[in-house]
Design brief:
30% of the residues lie in helices and 17% in strands. It is an alpha/beta fold and 311 residues long. It has a seven-stranded parallel sheet. It has a five-stranded parallel sheet with strand order 2-1-3-4-5, covered by helices on one side. Helix 5 links the parallel strand 6 and strand 7. The longest helix has 19 residues. Bound molecules: NADPH dihydro-nicotinamide-adenine-dinucleotide phosphate. NADPH dihydro-nicotinamide-adenine-dinucleotide phosphate binds next to helix 3 and helix 5.
Amino acid sequence: MALLIDIKHPDWMSDDQLRADLLGYYPGADIRIGANPGNPEEIEMLTVSSYYPGEALRYPNLRLIQKTGAGVNNILADESLPGEIQIARLQAETSGNEMAEYALACVLQEQRHLRAYHAQQRAGQWISYPPRRAAETTVAVLGLGRIGSLVARRFVDNGFNVVGWSRTQKDLQQVVCHAGEAGLRETLAVSDYVVSVLPSTPQTRAMFDFDLFGLFRAEAFFINIGRGDLVDEAGLIAALDAGRLAGAMLDVMSIEPLPADHPLWQHERVQLTPHVSGYHLGDAIADIAENYRRLQTGDALLNLVDRKRGY
Ligand code: NDP
């Protein structure tokens, strides 16, 4: 049984590097790389970061697609994907904690006016503003799954008031949890920062549109570390220009890399990063090796995606 690694993001991690890491957990495993897959009939497990429609069909005996990340929307969007192929994603503490750190960095930058001071420095201006206090600031975390709950905890630990929103009602210590449509309104109405850690599903796609931004507080910042296609980007720009919210920090975009002529690049109240909030695989590498082992022994696989639910 062969595992094929075809990450397709050499700027992030090479197939060879992941292969070497996996062999550390599972010496002697038949692990191949995208550049040299060998006989496609021997590939039963495929590990990808990006996935192209129809890719699964290249391997007639494929049983498992293992994503090297948490978002699987591109794989699920493949209409040719055979129903019996299972999909697993990663549920790693490492990247979840990195994403919490990223969200905290975005919020602290605004709390201490660092962006404003940077602009003032270029203009040679010496003007001071009082820092905003965490205890008087409310952060909303939308999506309270594996990553969202780590994000919420990080803000609680740093003294912020935290509200959360998910599909089903949650009970998290020191987090005021809401669910459902009415819960979203309540969440947005009180929040100075809104952090989205939601997956891309038919229900969430394009949910952040001009109308929804109308429920934000005019002083609020939107931070998206979930998926880019949750945002109607024209609606976001219109909402920023109409003063419906104060600014946006986006780690994920609807098209990545963002096209050079996209208006988000130049908008003065938008900050972009190239999908880096959760970066290292860390403890997740052990899970990939473990799924390879379990696929051989027939044990239940780790972190399987519910294909119907979409995450
Ligand atoms: P989980 O599946 O653990 O959690 C998803 C959360 O979203 C759950 O709380 C779920 O609610 C909630 N949710 C889903 N659909 C809805 C909805 N329609 N309305 C309200 N809440 C909803 O996912 P993770 O925390 O592991 O990951 C979240 C996302 O983060 C991933 O899907 C991925 O897209 C993104 N990501 C981005 C990275 C980056 O580098 N920028 C890196 C890693 C992940 P419930 O529990 O009630 O079902």
